[in-house]
Each structure stands twice: as C-alpha cells, then as structure tokens.
C-alpha cells in the first residue's frame, strides 16, 4: 500500500495499514491478563503472613547509593537482601566451610523474610504483589561447595509459603561467590504487581 505521511496520520497511523488491533497495545495489564490477575487478587497475602507466624527482621537501611525497592511499570524490583535474624543480626560465613548446607539454607530463608520486611517497609501492603517473577541468589561459598541451588531453596520455600506455589515460584538463578561483610547469602527479586 502506498500512503503519504499526512494521510497516514489522518487515517489513524497503523490502523490505516490494516492493523486494527493496535489499541490492544494500550490496554491496562488488568484487561490484558484479567483471568490471572483476578485469581491472584483473590489471595490475601497479609493474612497468609499472619497465619504462618513469621517473625520479620527489621528492614535494613541502604548502605550505598541505591534504592531498596523500585517500581517500573507493573514490576517491583527489590535490591539484594541479606540474611538478618529477628534482632537484625547479619548471618555470616562461607557455606561449605563455616556453615553447612542446612545453615546456608536457613540464611537464605532469613534473606527471604528480610525481603518481605523491606517490601512492607518501603512499599506497603503485601497485597499489592501479584506474583514472584525472578530470583537471583548469590551464596558465599567455599571453593569446593557446589550446592548453591539447594541453599537458595530456603528463600524459594519462603516465597512459596507466602504467595503459594502458583504465584510464589518464578524463574531463578543461584551462583556462588564472595560477598560483602562475609554475609552468607544475598538475594534480589522481581515481583509483578496487581493492577
């Protein structure tokens, strides 16, 4: 089809070329994913948190030039969180040397509870969350420790307990490395928000 610029604009841009579905690009996420969002919106995560009886550690303050949480579009990005106990103490040590696998997994679990605390402190109600999308976990590992995914399972299990298996299990990476302050793990995540 040959069409000049002014005619293209007058006829509504891409619609003039027969792309009648272009308005669908501008619908809200609720309209686009109404079934999924209706389902996740039916779950009360705040109530679930109370039922589980989790004791959340205090949300740590940023120690660098970054934001603990950031909303972009319908996604919530949460910066890397550390394993804190209920009194705010940092769990430290190399997994495979100073800590065994179960202790490392417990540290990852505490990092998950710290993340929930940070979300509630900086973002508010957990019921703004629809689902976990992505987890990236780093384990402070001894040179001959290779079970990083089993350690990060501690975090993943907490998310599944709070948000359920359908909405608490997203994509995930788990690697080993050296971490600041000798912290046992550091975990960041991305969540989808309810519309």
What does this structure look like?
The protein is α+β, with helices and mostly antiparallel strands and 195 residues long. The chain folds into two domains: 5-32, no CATH class; 43-193, RutC-like (60s Ribosomal Protein L30, Chain: A). 35% of the residues lie in helices and 20% in strands. The chain has helices at residues 5-10, 29-32, 34-41, 45-52, 101-122, 148-168, and strands at 69-72, 75-81, 129-140, 171-177, 185-193. Strand 3 (129-140), helix 6 (148-168) and strand 4 form a beta-alpha-beta unit. The longest helix is centred in the middle third of the chain and has 22 residues, at 101-122. It is globular. The model is unreliable at 7-11 and 13-28 (pLDDT under 50).
Indicate the topology:
Layout: H1 5-10, H2 29-32, H3 34-41, H4 45-52, E1 69-72, E2 75-81, H5 101-122, E3 129-140, H6 148-168, E4 171-177, E5 185-193
Parallel strand pairs: 3-4
Antiparallel strand pairs: 1-2, 2-5, 3-5
Helix pairs in contact: 5-6
Question: What portion of residues is helical?
Answer: 25-40%
Per DSSP E runs of 2 or more residues, the count of β-strands stands at 5
* Nearest-integer average pLDDT: 86
The share of residues in extended strands comes to 15-25%
CATH topology of the largest domain: 60s Ribosomal Protein L30, Chain: A
Numbering strands along the chain, what is their spatial order in the largest sheet? 1-2-5-3-4
Distance between the termini: 39 Å
If classified by CATH, what would the architecture of the largest domain be? Answer: 2-Layer Sandwich
Which spans have pLDDT < 50 for at least 5 consecutive residues?
7-11, 13-28
Radius of gyration: 21 Å
